[in-house]
Amino acid sequence: MADMPVTLGAIRKLRTDKGRTGINAVVKRIFREVVSKMRKHPTAKNLVEVYKRLDRAAKSQVIHRNKADRLKSRLSRLLRKK
Description:
By secondary structure, the chain is mainly α. The chain has a domain at 31-82. It is 80% helix and 0% strand. Helix 1 packs antiparallel against helix 2 (44-59) and helix 2 (44-59) packs antiparallel against helix 3. The protein starts with 7 loop residues before the first helix and ends with a helix.
């Protein structure tokens, strides 16, 4: 286990990191749910939702922008096959 922060700046950083970790976990969970839903039921409406969630996750650097682009490309191919 890591030691507790000593300096005031490190204490503030720890507090901020805890909050951001929670927010990032929510963003990640939501985009995974949407991607899973799109894989099960590929529709244009689901694709729009996937694009929105992946772009938001990439913008806040929860995932890399190239990963978001790759997922969007693969999921749009599912829609083309129909």
